[in-house]
Amino acid sequence: MSPRSPSVNEELRRRSRERILQATVELVDAHGYEATTLGDIAERAGTARGLISYYFPGKRQLLQAAVHRLMHRTLEAALEREPRTEDGHERLARAIDAILGLAVERPTLMRTHMALILQAEGFVQCQEQQRLAFLLRDTVTRYGSADVDTDYPLLRALLMGAVVAVLLPGAPMPLARLRSELFQRYGLDWEAGAPPEGGPPDGAPSPRHPAGHPSSGQSPRPE
After folding, report:
1. Phi, psi for 205 (deg, rounded to 5)
2. Which residues of 25-60 are buried (b: 16+ CB within 10 A; e: fewer)?
3. Distance CA 117, CA 60 (A)
4. Structure pTM?
5. Does residue 153 register a pLDDT over 60?
6. Measured on CA atoms in the order 10, 11, 15, 18, is the torsion positive or negative?
7. Which of 66, 71, 146, 204 has CB 3.0 to 4.6 Å from 219, enough for a Cys bridge?
8. 219 has pLDDT over 60
9. Is there a contact between 65 and 128 (Cβ–Cβ < 8 Å)?
């Protein structure tokens, strides 16, 4: 039997890594972070326990990579769903709804992810996070930002804050209210993206056009 080519080996490694990431999301979402072991993940992924350590320094890094992968895939699906659009405002609305939607649909997973980010070790840089960052930066660019290096981190911070607010134990903020505030900030129509049922919350302000909205003749950017 002839040895496998480098390209075949690379594809096998990619698939193995993907299985590990997917298993991590499924198990932590179902059982929580502390109750999920690397052995559990290896068993669900159908791979050797040692292979996880080959790809990831530890469980914290593994989980952050797995959640960033989930966020990237969710965001990509939202941006590319039919009808496809190049309209920057619609794409930003879809991006906001995609990230907020994860907080509602997978609260255990996202709460754990945010808690790990806020620990002393902080944010983990990985290829999954870089893919997510690329999509968000591209969204800000298409929205019309004149200063992506400033506006992308601001959008990221606002989304992280909104996710924490949705998941705050004992005092969660209503999704519709948070969405309304973000949409107002960026001058987005309520019906853009994937609006929740029930319409905008009572007393929600009408969308305003941020400084530089196309109607002003300048490049749009967040306030």
Report:
1. -70, 155
2. bbbbbeeebeebebebbbebbebeeebbeeebeebb
3. 9
4. 0.86
5. yes
6. positive
7. 146
8. no
9. yes
